[in-house]
């Protein structure tokens, strides 16, 4: 599903990723772990086409990322949840979810799609799946951090990408909410046979919810193991 071939990425003279290679199969749940500065965000941003590699190649479904010319076509394949959630606080929850369906920053279209019943039904369905059916028209900024993270998840569910990328999806949440979001993310992805690559700080959560752990250190792979082979000390 994802092929990373000898990827290198520098910021000026600083090497963020050096000659990184790995393959992720369809349906795998991969946790990216490693200390701050290891290169996790850079790798996810490369996979999401927010950055270009200096050398090497990234393929999704056998096709180089650079050949997905159309942003919408790529968004159907690959969806990203970023640390900042990218939600618009002033908008109602359901408008944020509908905006994601269009995979671009067109709020006008989000409102327009409210008049398309099938689109609205899908957004309501996605919000039900994350347990927010009673907050459809709540202002998004009035929601707690955990609820906002669930809105971001609902938006991604509606977009139905084959690959879900998540950068620290639980960074700002307390332990109970973190487990809630991770269980939801990986559980729903499993149901749809989606592939997940998520960066995480906690090895404990990575082992509990993901099938494979890739640890980065100084822009390189430190270890790459099935989660059951990873010990607490690693
Ligand atoms: P993380 O939580 O992934 O460790 P960081 O704190 O490393 O995030 O980075 C947060 C943001 O700041 C990222 O968008 C990253 O690209 C940017 N950033 C990180 N390090 C630097 C740097 N040395 N110079 C400029 N921008 C940086
Ligand atoms: P992580 O997500 O694992 O914390 P990052 O990918 O954010 O790691 O950062 C990898 C390295 O690249 C770090 O040394 C960081 O300081 C550097 N870096 C990240 N973003 C930038 C940037 N925009 N400009 C300069 N250096 C950066």
UniProtKB/TrEMBL annotation:
Keywords: ATP-binding, Cell membrane, Membrane, Nucleotide-binding, Phosphonate transport, Translocase, Transport. InterPro entries: AAA+_ATPase, ABC_transporter-like_ATP-bd, ABC_transporter-like_CS, ABC_transpr_PhnC, MetN_ABC_transporter-like, P-loop_NTPase. One of its GO terms (cellular component) is membrane. The keyword Transmembrane does not apply. GO terms for molecular function: ABC-type phosphonate transporter activity; ATP binding; ATP hydrolysis activity. Residues 2-234 form the ABC transporter domain. It holds the Pfam family ABC_tran. PANTHER family: AMINO ACID IMPORT ATP-BINDING PROTEIN, PHOSPHONATES IMPORT ATP-BINDING PROTEIN PHNC. This is ABC transporter ATP-binding protein.
């Amino acid at each position: 599903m994802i092929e990373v071939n000898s990827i290198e990425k520098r910021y000026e003279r600083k090497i963020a990723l050096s000659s990184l290679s790995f393959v992720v199969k369809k349906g795998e749940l991969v946790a990216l772990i490693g200390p701050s500065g290891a290169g996790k965000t850079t790798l996810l941003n490369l996979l999401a086409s927010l950055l270009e590699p200096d050398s090497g190649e990234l393929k999704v479904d056998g096709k180089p990322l650079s050949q997905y010319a159309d942003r919408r076509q790529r968004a159907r394949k690959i969806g990203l949840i970023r640390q900042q959630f990218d939600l618009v606080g002033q908008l109602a929850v359901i408008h944020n979810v509908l905006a994601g369906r269009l995979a671009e920053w067109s709020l006008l279209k989000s409102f327009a799609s409210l008049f398309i019943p099938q689109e609205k039904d899908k957004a309501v369905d996605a919000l039900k799946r994350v347990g927010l059916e009673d907050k459809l028209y709540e202002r998004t900024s009035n929601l707690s951090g955990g609820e906002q993270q669930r809105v971001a998840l609902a938006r991604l569910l509606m977009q139905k990408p084959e690959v879900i990328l998540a950068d620290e999806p639980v960074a700002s949440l307390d332990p109970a909410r973190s487990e809630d979001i991770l269980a939801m993310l990986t559980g729903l992805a499993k149901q749809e046979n989606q592939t997940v690559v998520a960066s995480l700080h906690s090895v404990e959560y990575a082992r509990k919810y993901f099938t494979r752990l890739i640890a980065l250190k100084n822009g390189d792979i430190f270890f790459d193991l099935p989660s059951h082979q990873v010990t607490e000390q690693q």
